[in-house]
Design brief:
Length: 377
Amino acid sequence: MKKSGFCIDATTYGWSRVLIIAEIGTGHGGDEVKAAELIAAAIESGADCVKFQHVYADEIIHPATGLVPLPGGPTPLYDTFKALETSPDFMSRLKERVESMGALFLCTPFGLRSARELRDIGVHAMKIASPELNHAQLMEEIATYGLPTILSSGVSRLSDIENALEPFSQTGTSTALLHCVTAYPAPETDYNLRVLEALSTLFGVPVGISDHSADPLVVPSLAVASGACIIEKHLCLSRQGDGLDDPIALPPRDFERMSAAVRRMSRLVEDIGAAATINALKNEYGATMTEAVLGDGHKRLAHSEAANYSRTNRSIHARRSIARGERFSADNLAILRTEKVLRPGLAPLQLPVVIGRRAARDIPDGEGVEWADLGSF
């Protein structure tokens, strides 16, 4: 299994075996002062890398998405994303602040515009969120940048991962894969951490986890013992904050506990080996709990995320109302997350099949484009 500090010179940022990423996301709410507080808290709590999200609502969901159930309750997510949009200059200033403190700046794009803006401000690596893993056009774009790229793989099947990694293989771009469960919070017992070795072996890339569980210790500790070289966890100033992910994020004190546990596990694995470290953790967390978190190593959709498949990830949607007989084009189609109200459409990989055909029936604004919607050329 590949266990290096990913594919950026580790000595530049001071990590050894395991890269710890503090996911701030949009928790700053567009407030640069709060962003600075979060950056300082992340680095003081042991993070090697501080990650944000570069949001444009129209790259993610349709205005007709409606209310989306989130940890903080049903949320008008399109309007929320619109309010969280920031400029490339804002992201550039966050990047400068993070790097001035000796950490790696990382940011997630959600479409071609945000990806190109991050490239243009000179980021050193890219991060793909789980719902975008099947956004084939975005993967093809980012693969041309030649930047080390970390891909999260929540709510995915092996075929989705293989398709996502293919453009990077073609361009020779270095990648790492984060095992993830797309649920908020995710049950610790859904993590199936034995899959890490299988993913690393199958795809030949370093692996880690993006952890959405509530406990700060058990999943990260067992992940390191299972071969993870990257640990990503949400960070907030307070779980009572107004950030989208604050209810499931770690406050600084808990994030610091997690960082200490990750470093301890990393040393323990080097000293006594992975199997002995897992046995030690069985004494700490109990054999039943430990085995439940480790799972059987077979890659499958976790129970808590299975209902999100085809809804949290991307599909082809009508950008506006499309009349029967109208040709499908880049002007009337978009690749978006479906969420809970709209119907899912065809996978983004099918876009070349759709473009140029005529609509076989009227398609309401925002709805997914299905096979039954495709008429003749």
